Amino acid sequence: MTRDPYRYYRVEARELLDGLGQGALDLESGAAGPEVVARLLRLAHTLKGASRVVKRAEMAALAHEIEEELAPHRESGAPPAARVREIRRRLGEMSALLADLDHAGAPHAAAQARDGEGAAPVLRVDIDDADSVLRTLSEQGAHHAVLRAELSALEQARRLAAVLADQLGPRSRGSGAP
């Protein structure tokens, strides 16, 4: 029997789309702040990555477009109504794509249930914990870049010192200095 290659993806994508939909409603209400935009950016980014992993390019492209709609409002947390409508339109397209994928995978899901495999386990991660990990990784990446630049500068200084020592070495020995 062929396994359903989208079994786990469908579960994750549905949860991410639900979170994006709720966030879009929060934005529409006008009471949302930068934290809502940040959460939506994380959800869209996660959905984009998951979609790319399972080669669902259209879904990944739509998630990327949502990121682009939200990114300019990361600090203000207040996208204009036209942008929110555009985000909701894209979420509708994504839901339709997922529904098509649900229907395409339905025979596999029914066969798996009869085989006793049951529903896929779902891993839930607290969004604040994930945000903290991502922030720490980002900070460490920045520190790593600074250290690499400093190491490069030190290596260049060491090479210059070696060249200078080679150039000055014979002169100072030939001058009779101890």
Question: Can you summarize this structure?
Answer:
The chain is built from 5 helices and no strands. The protein is mainly α.
Structural write-up:
By secondary structure, this protein is mainly α. The chain is built from five helices and no strands. The protein has helices at 7-29, 34-53, 57-70, 81-114, 127-174. α2 packs antiparallel against α3 (57-70). The longest helix has 48 residues, at 127-174. The radius of gyration is 27 Å and the shape is elongated.
Features:
mainly alpha, 78% helix, 178 residues
Mean pLDDT, rounded to whole units? 82
**Residue share in β-strands:** under 5%
Low-pLDDT ranges: 106-110, 112-117
Shape: elongated
Helix content: over 70%
N- to C-terminal separation?
Answer: 86 Å
Structural class, by secondary structure, is mainly alpha
The tally of beta strands, per DSSP, is: 0
Largest sheet: none
Tally of DSSP helical segments: 5
Radius of gyration: 27 Å
H/E series, N to C? HHHHH
Oligomeric state as shown: single chain
